[in-house]
Amino acid sequence: MTREIEDLIRTAQERQADRALPADRIRAALPRRAAQARRRRRYGMAGAAVAAVSVAAAVTVPVVLLRGPGPAGTAPTAAGAATAPSGAEPTVAALPQTYPLGYRPAWAPPGFGERIRFADSSQPGDPFGPTVQRVWKKQVGPGDPWNGAGITLYVRTEVPDPAQAMDTSGQRVDINGVRGYYSAGGDAKSYVDWSPNGHTVLMLAAGHFDISKADLLRMARSVRPDPTVATIPVNLRWLPEGWTTTAATISGQGPTTWRAEVSAVRREVPTGAATPGKDKRGVPPVEGGTVETGSLSVVVGAVTDAPAGGKQLTVGGHPARQPVRTDAPGRDLIYLVVDLGQGRLMTLVGEGAGLTVDDLVKVAEQAEVNPPGKGWIGN
Prior knowledge:
- The protein is α+β, with helices and mostly antiparallel strands.
- The protein has 2 domains: 23-51 and 99-231, MucB/RseB, C-terminal domain (Phosphorylase Kinase, domain 1); 60-93 and 234-379, no CATH class.
- It has 6 helices and 22 strands.
- It has a 15-stranded mixed β-sheet that branches. Strands 2-22-13 form a 3-stranded antiparallel β-sheet, covered by helices on one side. Strands 1-17 form a two-stranded antiparallel sheet.
- The longest helix is centred in the N-terminal third of the chain and has 15 residues, at 5-19.
């Protein structure tokens, strides 16, 4: 609560380093994904400086359509099938509302359950394509789920050249008849990656967890195809022109404590501006790609990292507030916190590309929230 801003920034950077993929094989994709991670961390730093507002967590939220019920005789449509309300521009969804999980391990160390699912989209020039992360942890809190020990399965099934996407500097190992590469580093980090077919790269990585080589390989060798399709609980049915959804995270300690986050950005083709070829964070685009000039995070959960207080509003018939930060890292951020009722808050945090509070209000009013499939959380 009393740490200096520099300490908060340093802590955020260290936490992000813990989440980073090991080795150098992701250099080509690091700028975009590091920018996404820094953005999530920057949004979340307020949580280290102010007390989170907590509400009852063990409540299952039914379909919530913030703008109110539809015409008489109609019911809210399911997430992923909704159409934009009349007069609203539809969301440009680079990230589909549903996505295949691809693969899953049949064994994990005792006490570890699947508690995080993450999916992102890709842009032209990305050598990996879309990525799914499935994370096994012993526990996660109601806020940012990424801290602490975990084992992550990275699934990429649209890789143009798997040989170029793997780190082959590690120890050669056999993963169900195909060659894999095992590496271990400091800080209780180890990983193994392999390619089960001509377009898929899998990696199993342990962080902050001193797992034995034998157990990591046992878990890797238990990985099998998984036909399950996941649904993102938060459907952003409207975004400002030029914005697009790019990533989503679902987490929870158990079926009734889920949290969901959806990220969106505005991308533009680089021009001869003051910082040509880079976005406002100094991150260059991948070859043939674009730069991000604006970003938005929408989180539905039992707590908020937004500062306390702020102007009182009503959004879609729900009580809301507009907090403001005056510290250097946060003064460019626009916040909106909406009380959905039944123990859930929606927190929107945006910056850049001319984004306004009115834009956040409209995003929230058109949003649709559905509980995620519960059977996987903690199993």
